[in-house]
């Protein structure tokens, strides 16, 4: 038995992917989300479909919560696991965590890294998939402003934090050549990510009706999961849906990569 850890499992793409994989693979699905009731209902649905699943409630909205989640996962998963980073946040306003960092910077970047470290230290991971966003090509990183959201934008902050995590995972792939790592744009999917109140939210909901369903996206991700290999050792390749593409220029800027690397390590080690 191998374990497949899926964050953000209670809604949207994560929920659809869990149901798609149920009974398809000889994996135990280790499902992570904050909503305990929704997780437990999902486990029951998966078991009815002939799959195996374990609910591990956890919170990625703080670094301390992410570390606790990582320690718990390291206790329950078996070596050779696949980790799918799917949880994400598209904020509509600037909100700071108790640590004083902008919430999306934590949820989309710092927290998954903090959670993942326990699994890496335990030697439990074999593959890591990052469900990212094509909008990372519009991202940038300002070491003095992005972590605290002083450069907050209801659009750009999502792009910025997705870029940050993608760059960090490229470093993880380089530091851990035993891992198979891929970062991908999953498609334009109709979920509640980025939902807004008022007229803007209403217009966005109309536009989303033309986007693909989470189930279509989940089938795509399942096909990618079935591939024997995603990237060469020491690298993380970039996929747009199912096709490999060169990394966007924003992800190739060496000054940005170096500054983000130093800032991230400082925040992870001092917090």
TrEMBL record:
Signal peptide limits: none
Name assigned to this protein: SDR family NAD(P)-dependent oxidoreductase
Any Pfam family the entry gives: adh_short
Coiled-coil residue spans: none
Keywords attached to this entry: Oxidoreductase
Family statement: Belongs to the short-chain dehydrogenases/reductases (SDR) family.
GO molecular function: oxidoreductase activity
Species per Swiss-Prot/TrEMBL record: Corallococcus llansteffanensis
